[in-house]
């Protein structure tokens, strides 16, 4: 089969893979999705080997700003659905758009390589290699834990956040001294989760972070922020209004004994948690500085204080790894993170994309839907419109626009995007390609 008529391959049937398959099919591009696990849903299948969520996980962005562009979440659901509802939503999306027959489960991808005659060869753990015209990598980036580099040895129970499932699994925390290391959403959520069971809960922070409640005056905080964006207020004024609203709702972090941030609001990924400050005020969670070293069951902090713990949970993020493909083929930098146009498209190839490799300051699935729409148009342009394909090639080679928000330089923010500006950039590319594709002459094969 020639590369021009071979289907595209989508790797992963989580939120990003599902919308990639859907948009390719809607654009008239044959596609097959390969999923390693037994069912669809990816990270949202609680308890599966591929899942890093825990029993109390729910969205940190509202359902309105999380949903796909053409498939809203039910109106009677809470503003921040739990993981069971999220999984039901993803499976409903697959049924609604007829995706299930295009998904092969228990199909573990071992290697992706360029094919001699064009396109890609995908090698599976079982079965012969398969030939595809293009590849969409959508396997997520919450797979390989990033462990903190802390000297010494801890003799208690040492876990990463991906191992934590509840206050009883994999280790009961009742009556034990627990240290949670990290300043992100997982760290805050886990600290809140264990605080009412553990004998002591300490949250270790390398720096100060802003904490945003899920709701402000009874309405999702991110929808409040959307209203400020629609009003076209300048960034400094949006920051001022938002800080005052946060302060009225839960109080700014230093009012609760948390360190003052060394950056401005939104220059780090927001910590969305309405309970953290209350747990600190009640004494159930105690903030601490960074960890210097382990010494048996004792942890030494930057201020010299030493404290014994039974359990340490490292909520320190994940490494971006694509083990089945040569990093050169996704234009990866020294840190292994692909350098892609809009965090999505290869700078020169029009037969490969990575969908979902972003960390937005709001909901993600609607953004990955837009990403997949652009990928589908790229595939159509490569098939039947050399002029549109050439335009997109030139667009990908231009220097990226200067971002309005400069994020703190840390591994946590390698993939950070400001959702509104990012969505606008994707929509501009989609609209430009649509105009060029409409003007392209139709051929019998297209």
Word description of this protein:
It is built from ten helices and 24 strands. The protein has 446 residues and is an alpha/beta fold. It folds into two domains: 8-144 and 318-439, FAD/NAD(P)-binding domain, CATH 3.50.50.60; 147-213 and 250-314, 3-Layer(bba) Sandwich (FAD/NAD(P)-binding domain), CATH 3.50.50.60. Helix 1 (15-26) links the parallel strand 1 (8-11) and strand 2 (31-34). The two termini are 16 Å apart. The model has no long low-confidence stretch (mean pLDDT 94).
What is this structure, in a nutshell?
With 446 residues, the protein is of the alpha/beta class.
Give the number of domains: 2
Provide the gyration radius in Å. 23 Å
CATH class of the largest domain: Alpha Beta
Number of helices, counting only DSSP H or I runs of 4 residues or more: 10
Helix content: 25-40%
| Fraction in beta strands | 15-25%
CATH architecture of the largest domain: 3-Layer(bba) Sandwich
What is the averaged pLDDT score? 94
Low-confidence stretches: none
Strand order of the largest sheet: 3-2-1-7-22
Quick one: overall form?
A: globular
What structural category characterises the helix and strand content? alpha/beta
Number of strands: 24
CATH superfamily of the largest domain: FAD/NAD(P)-binding domain
Examine the coordinates and then state which fold CATH places here, giving the name of the CATH topology of the largest domain.
FAD/NAD(P)-binding domain
The profile of the biggest β sheet is:
5 strands, parallel
CA(first)-CA(last) distance? 16 Å
